[in-house]
Amino acid sequence: MVREQYVSTTQGSSPPRSVPNNVYNIGIYGWRKRCLYLFVLLLIIILVVNFALTIWVFRVMWFNTDGMGLLQVNSEGVKLEEGESEFLFPVYAQEIHSREDTSLLVHSSESVSLNARNEDGNVTGRISVGPREAQGRARNVLINSQTESMLFTADGDQAVIGPDRLRVTGPEGALFQHSVETPLLRSELLKDLRLECPTRSLSLDAPKGVHLKALAGNIEAASNMDILLQSSIGMLVLDAEMVRMPRLPLSEEGVSGNAQGLLEVCVCPSGKLFLSKAGVTSTCSENQEC
């Protein structure tokens, strides 16, 4: 409370005249003053708590001049010296390298996807590894060895295998829905080689010949119906120490006096073979079973 008194005097004998007293209240009083002090106190408490939390975050996250804890940030990028890193959202990076003498492992509870995008942001290549399957999408697929030799390449038209040998180790072998072109088809050592078509025909075609060779075993061809050996221009050669035809039909008629049981092989004009009991001369014309 400030009290001001104004007194005016004049020259003469008149006594001074008093001025009415006026009282002015300057400041904040009452409940407003208490609320202001309470707000200032609350603001100071919030500032102290924020400062303490900031110091705690710096201590927990190990912030330093080089980065954050074991995570170093420099001009070359971000480097993690030890431990594991966890990303909650997509990561965009130009290159990802593992530490020296260690492998790069990528784990996910659902799936891991790698996308390559062009300048417009469209996905040009994609690799996704999920809990049930792995998928890849690209125009061309190329796999090289350490010596930059092509191991496998594929596009929309064909797939090419670079090594000299393709080995299939499955118990059921390899299943092809269409034709296969190869210069050599060979089984493993001490194992059989089978070419099988359960419901349709099987054909082997080559412009200069087809060679079937078994160095230490047999070659068997079994059919429910006919087996045809046909040559358009050349001839059919059976080159072996012994040629056996155990199920040739035997002519019912024979030559009397043939006690040795000798037989001769006869050929019909149609190419059919049959057996006839041998005599002094040929008996094929007499005992025709054509």
UniProtKB/TrEMBL annotation:
Q: Where in or outside the cell?
A: Cell membrane, Sarcolemma; Cytoplasm, Cytoskeleton
This entry carries the following GO cellular component terms, namely: cytoskeleton; sarcoglycan complex; sarcolemma
What's a single GO BP term from this record? cardiac muscle tissue development
Which UniProt keywords are present, listed alphabetically?
Answer: Cell membrane, Cytoplasm, Cytoskeleton, Disulfide bond, Glycoprotein, Membrane, Signal-anchor, Transmembrane, Transmembrane helix
Major localization listed first in the record, in broad terms: membrane
Note the topology in the membrane. Single-pass type II membrane protein
Q: Is the keyword Glycoprotein in the record?
A: yes
Q: Where are the transmembrane segments?
A: 36-58
**One Pfam match, by short name?**
Sarcoglycan_1
- Domain of life where this protein originates: Eukaryota
Entry similarity comment = Belongs to the sarcoglycan beta/delta/gamma/zeta family.
In terms of PANTHER family, this protein maps to: GAMMA-SARCOGLYCAN, SARCOGLYCAN
Q: What does this protein do?
A: Component of the sarcoglycan complex, a subcomplex of the dystrophin-glycoprotein complex which forms a link between the F-actin cytoskeleton and the extracellular matrix.
Q: What is this protein called?
A: Gamma-sarcoglycan
Species name: Gymnodraco acuticeps (Antarctic dragonfish)
Taxonomic lineage per UniProt?
Eukaryota, Metazoa, Chordata, Craniata, Vertebrata
Q: Which gene encodes it?
A: sgcg
